[in-house]
Design a protein that fits this description.
The protein is mainly alpha-helical. The protein is about 65% helix and about 0% strand.
Length: about 70
């Protein structure tokens, strides 16, 4: 199975999915469930509320445009 763009991005940053989940849980005060985070990493297209997208982008230190390109391609 081919890696998603998001999974490739994490790999480039030296993170695996488990490390990414811990990072997001720490940075967002466990706002997202592990299943939700896994879905973002593994899905080729994700629908996400703007408020959640902003929180996730801040946690990753990327722009909303960059996050959108990772979630939807």
């Amino acid at each position: 199975m081919a890696k998603t763009k998001f999974a490739q991005y994490l790999e480039e940053r030296g993170l695996n999915q488990t490390q990414f989940i811990k990072l997001i849980e720490e940075k967002t005060n466990k706002r997202f469930s592990k299943a939700t985070i896994s879905n973002y990493v593994n899905a080729k297209h994700c629908n996400i509320l703007m408020e959640n997208a902003m929180v996730l982008a801040i946690a990753l230190d990327i722009t909303l445009d960059d996050l959108n390109s990772l979630l939807n391609y």
